[in-house]
């Protein structure tokens, strides 16, 4: 199989490139001219440099491929350039789907997010759930929702596309929680907000497995939630504490976190700075809760993810110094 991976140098994209190459597939990667390619060290991927919204670049990258994996996205919460995010997540997705249809690509797999469901207020939902939240929690929430709408419209128009909807993605090179765990295991994380916040997690290599299975046997137009399970942030920290002996971070008072978010937001806007806390991030910590059921992917894709416990054990092992 010859496959194109958009955003090939990113966290998910680079793991997907390695997963495809391990199968013996020929891989083309679309990356920006300024992209950091360090995550692709040692890979044989053929790189095409161009913008995700440039149809000429996309046609060049898709020429002769069997499957397109669209993982490129602008992922950020807090103070973001909504216009730039819209260009990547909405216009870029539109361009990828239209080019794939024009060239007659046999299958497209789109990496979406469970965020398209909006705030489920703690209810566990599956792929049949219709979004109820009025408005959007963030520019990311809005742009990924609109991108999914485009994908679904293209599916109805005959494009053979399947959408995978992952929860929080963990694994080697994780740019988000991996850094937090490192601070924790180094004894530098004394406080953390939102201990009761529930989050779903999946290992990036299991997401890769699900995406490849979606390309092989996923039904056109279908959505597949990708989650190994869920737990609260407090349970996660307690587990890591038990494994490392490092004390669990104390719960920061919600009133204080909300106050800091309210103070730092206008400062960040004034200085063009991304503060560690903002109103938007505080909203995600305390006010928004999306919970999902991944039974469909496990049954229809024959997908078997590793357990939440093994994901956390591996994550901790990556942060601890090796024993000589």
TrEMBL record:
Transmembrane segments: none annotated. GO terms for molecular function: aldehyde dehydrogenase (NAD+) activity. This is NAD-dependent epimerase/dehydratase family protein. InterPro entries: Epimerase_deHydtase, NAD(P)-bd_dom_sf, NAD(P)-dependent_oxidoreduct. PANTHER family: NAD(P)-BINDING DOMAIN-CONTAINING PROTEIN-RELATED (PTHR48079:SF6), PROTEIN YEEZ (PTHR48079). It comes from the Bacteria. One of its GO terms (cellular component) is cytoplasm. Residues 3-226 form the NAD-dependent epimerase/dehydratase domain.
């Amino acid at each position: 199989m010859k496959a194109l991976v958009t955003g090939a140098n990113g966290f998910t994209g680079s793991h997907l490139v390695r997963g495809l190459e391990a199968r013996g597939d020929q891989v083309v990667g679309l990356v920006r001219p300024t992209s950091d390619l360090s995550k692709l060290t040692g890979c044989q991927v053929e790189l095409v440099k161009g913008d995700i919204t440039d149809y000429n670049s996309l046609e060049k990258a898709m020429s002769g491929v069997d499957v397109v994996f669209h993982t490129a996205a602008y992922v950020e919460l807090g103070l973001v350039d909504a216009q730039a995010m819209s260009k990547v997540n909405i216009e870029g997705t539109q361009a990828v789907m239209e080019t794939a249809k024009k060239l007659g690509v046999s299958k497209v797999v789109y990496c979406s997010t469970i965020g398209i469901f909006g705030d489920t207020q703690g209810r566990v939902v599956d792929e049949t759930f219709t979004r109820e939240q009025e408005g959007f929690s963030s520019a990311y929430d809005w742009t990924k929702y609109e991108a999914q709408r485009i994908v679904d419209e293209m599916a109805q128009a005959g494009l053979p596309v399947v959408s995978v909807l992952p929860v929080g993605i963990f694994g080697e090179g994780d740019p988000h929680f991996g850094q937090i765990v490192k601070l924790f295991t180094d004894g530098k994380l004394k406080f953390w907000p939102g201990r009761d916040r529930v989050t779903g997690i999946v290992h990036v290599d299991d997401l890769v497995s699900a995406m490849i299975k979606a390309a092989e046997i996923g039904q056109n137009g279908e959505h597949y939630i990708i989650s190994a399970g869920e737990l609260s942030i407090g349970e996660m920290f307690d587990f890591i504490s038990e494994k490392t002996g490092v004390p669990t971070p104390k719960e920061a008072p919600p009133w204080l976190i909300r106050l800091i978010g309210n103070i730092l937001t206008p400062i960040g806007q004034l200085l063009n700075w991304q503060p560690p806390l903002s109103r938007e991030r505080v909203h995600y910590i305390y006010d928004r809760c999306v919970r999902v059921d991944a039974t469909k992917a496990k049954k229809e894709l024959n997908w078997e993810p590793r357990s939440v416990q093994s994901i956390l054990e591996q994550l901790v092992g990556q942060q601890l110094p090796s024993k000589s």
